[in-house]
Each structure stands twice: as structure tokens, then as C-alpha cells.
Amino acid sequence: MEFIWILFAFCCGLLAKVAKLPPSIGYLLAGFVLHFLGFTADDIILNLADLGITLLLFTIGLKLNIHDLVKKEVWLASLSHTSLWLVSGVIVFKFFAVIAIPYIVDLDIATSALVVFALSFSSTVCVVKLMEEHGEMRTRHGKLAVGILVMQDIIAVAFLVAATGKTPSIWALSLLVLIPLKPLIYRVISNVGHGELIPLTGFFVAFGAYELFEFVQIKGDLGALLGGMYLAGHYKASEITKSLLPFKDLFLIGFFLSIGFTALPTWEMFGIALVITLMLPIKFALFFLLFVSLNLRARTAFLSALALSNFSEFGLIVATLSQKIGWLEKEWLVILALAVSISFVITNIIYNFAHEFFALHKDKLNTYQRTKRLKEDQFDQPCDAPVVIIGMGRVGMGAYNALEQQIPGQVWGLDTDKEKVDWLNDNNIQAFTGDAEDADFWENVDADKIKLALLALPSVKDIKNITIQLKLANYQGKIAAIARYDDERAELEELGIDKVFNFYNEAGVGFAEESIGLYRQSTN
Predict the structure, then answer these.
(1) 143: which residues sit within 8 A by CB, 6+ positions away?
(2) Are residues 451 and 484 in the same domain?
(3) Residues 351 and 421 in one domain
(4) What is the pLDDT of residue 166?
(5) Cα–Cα distance for residue pair 376/209, rounded to 1 Å
């Protein structure tokens, strides 16, 4: 039985990849096809789905900063959007009822509000996977979208507590003991080394936090998220995150398959789900207008709103609970599962063209932008140094240190992560905060003063987007980039990049060149 799931997941995932869609869309399709063929989800699939969501929330927490959640553009936008969506959604549902859309016509105001509430959440799985695949988790719009998702998760947990009448245990207060124990726990984690204990540490904290919260009658998913945030300040947080990625992606296949097993739809249900997805532009418009009204730049507002314009697996949890209580008919579970799946497909397809779309319609979208800018969105003007390294990760840092020794004072770094840039500046590294995929950024930079741009980024798509922006900015200097595989190298060279270094081969060459000096010293 397990091989059948693997076979269908692989074939449908490969089909989606060939069609240049994310494999997750293929996994959704595999779930529906398996269900249609008469298969049912057993405990293995459901357990994998739960494991995947728990690890996803934990890894989100590892990348979160509590200061990101208390920003007005996060908490106020999230609460305002939920309120406005409820009002707008109920009005739309009443319109659907007037034109006699099946199932919707039978809903009263209270039940309509419940369904609309279930549709108010954006998918944590979909958005985070989207941001990871595009290498945008650390960008301004990526962190904003994740912050909104966390706020929505808190709202959902509050609803589940209210709906079930299940209040946290008095023992929940004992969790506060973990705060003064933080230095001790950090010290223990510092001793786990770099081997198999690293992912095991992630599993231990993620599922330990889950079980602790469940024990005190608080939803375990919230515990996994807070467990990640608890460790976010540890220097091994990044290493733990990377070690968990393969497990998280594998387990999430179970989640996507499980959606297809929710129930077997009819064509009528499928049609109603399509009608409901017509509400996605409303969701996008509300997010976009709220973001720009809070003085966010139009590009940040546009990309964040587009990523969040989908329905959530959390909506299915809300609907399942409502159906058990008797507030909702079971047919709505199928309709909402279809609507969630369709919204995943729409978001994944449309977001692939988000940057290009914004570049084409930038002038029109910027008319919604307020003249006042938040402090975080005010660019520091880069210095006059002629060499810029875009992406200050391990490769970028290595390149910076090597070039700084040869041409001191002539190099500067650029990264989207402000916290990383602050740390670099504290360590006397000349770095600035900015998104090189943003056309507005290059309008504030004198490209004539740059003679060499090194693109030290892991995503080929990001490298291509930045190269396009450089050309649009009339950049006349040289461009160098890195690639992990030969096909990626050929793709970048076709784009016109002057020099593409193979990440693995060039590392070996550099290691040999550095080591040959030791050999010559030993023979003298």
C-alpha cells in the first residue's frame, strides 16, 4: 500500500515539475486520484501529515524574531484583514445565495460567517514553501507574509479554544519556567556537535514542545511554533533548520496527499469550489490596500498580498471541528478541501510571474503607495566601492573576505536580511540592506559606479531576476554568479552572465590552490 502512495506521489510530482509547477501541486493531484481509485488514507499518511506540519511550524519559529510580530503592519493588518474579510465574504455569500448557487443558498448568516471565517486564513504550508522555493524567506515581503501567517495561527487557536470550550490547564503557567531555564538549555544544545544529533535536537524540541502544550490543553502546533522561536536566538538555529529541511519536505508530502483523501467530490461541489475561489481577488485587494495604508511600499504590499491570496489547511481544521459540533454539513468539508487545493494551484502558478508583473505595472501600482516610508524601507545608499557582492551567506562572506584582502575598501555587500546586515556592520564588514530583485532599489543606486557584481545566491531564479534588473538599470559592468549544477550553469551563461562558477567544482579548485602553497613551503 505504501508503495502505491509513493508511486502516485512521484509520478504526479514529476508531471507537475515537467509542467514547471511546484511538485506540491502534483501531490495534491495524487491524493485526489488515489481517492477516486478507491484508496483511503490510513494512519501512516495522517501521521506523516501531522509530522510535516509540526516541523514546518517549528522551522518557521526558528527563523522568526518576536519583534517582527509586534510591528503595526503585521498585527494590525492581520486583525483588520480578518474583520474586513468576514464582512466582505458574508456579503458575497449572500449575493451567491440570491443567484441560487447550490449549497450556499441554504446557509443562514451565522453559518455563512463560519464558512467565510474558515476561508479567512492563508496557507502556512503553501506560502512558506513558495517563499523557500523562491529564496524569499528573508526578504521584507517574505517576513511580512510569515508574520501575518503567525497572527492568523494565533486567531485560529483562539477560535478552537472558544469553539470546544477547552480552556488551558492551570499547569499551562508552569511553561513560564522555561524562560529562566533558557541559558541552561542553550548550553546543552551547544554541545550537540554537527552530526546526527543536530536533526535529532530539532525533532526533540519540536515534538517536545508540541507534547508539552497538548499536555496543558493548548494546541500542540502553537507549541511547535513557540519552540522554534525559543531557539531562534541560538547560533545553531540555522544549522538545525537546514538539517530538518529534507525531513520536513518529505513529511509534507503526506499532508498534500491527505487533502485529497478528505472526501470524494461531485462535479457540483467542484463547481462551487471554483465559484468560491473567485473571492481570492477580494482577499488580495484587502491585503494590498491595508499594507499600503500602513505605509508599506507598493512592491512589498503587492508580493506579500499575492503570496497570501489563498485558502488554508487551517480552514479545513476549523470546518472539521464545526462539522463535529453540528454547525456545518459534511459536504462543506469536501467543498472547502477543493477550494483550498485550487487556491494552492492558482497561487503557485501566478506567483511565478509576480516580479515580472510588478515590473511591467510598477508605475500604476506605485500610485497606491504613500509618500511616507517606514524606517525599515528607507535604503542606505551604498558607498562608491566598485565591487558589490549580492547575498552575504557563507559563499558571499568568503568572497568578501578574499576580495577585501586583495582590494581593501573597494568591496561592499548587499543582503535582504537586516539583522544579518547589522551583525556584519558590527563586525566591521561593509554591508547594506536591500533587495536586488527590486527595481526601485536600483533606481536609488548609481550603477555606473559599480564595475563588478558577484551574485552569491543559492537560487538560480533569484540570480536571473537580479541579472534582468541590472540590465534594466543600464548596468555596464561585469557579472559573476554561482551555480550548483551544470545545467544551471549553462542556463545562466545563456542569460549573458560573464562568469559562472560551479559551486562544488570551484570549491575544490580553490582548496587545491590554497593548499599548493603549503606543499611548496614543505619542499623548500
Answers:
(1) 68, 137
(2) yes
(3) no
(4) 63
(5) 33
Q: How many domains does the chain have?
A: 2
402 shares a domain with 291:
no
Give the end-to-end CA distance of the chain in Å, rounded to a whole number.
66
User: Do 217 and 340 share a domain, yes or no?
Assistant: yes
> How many Å apart are CA 76 and CA 59, to the nearest integer?
24
Listing DSSP states for 55-77 in one string gives HHHHHHHHT--HHHHSSHHHHHH
Domain that residue 411 falls in: 379-523
Cα separation of 343 and 387, whole Å? 43
The three three-digit cell numbers of residue 439, written as one number: 527595481
Q: Which amino acid is at 497?
A: I
What residues form DSSP beta bridges with 480? 454, 499
Q: What is the pLDDT of residues 186-212, one digit of tens each?
A: 888 888 887 888 889 889 999 999 898
Q: DSSP label at 176?
A: G
- Residue 34's identity, in one-letter code, is L
- Same domain assignment for residues 339 and 392: no
Q: Residue 56 — pLDDT band, cuts 50, 70, 90?
A: confident
Judged by DSSP in three states, 134 sits in coil
| 432 phi, psi to nearest 5 deg | -135, 155
Note the Cα 337 to chain centre separation in Å.
21
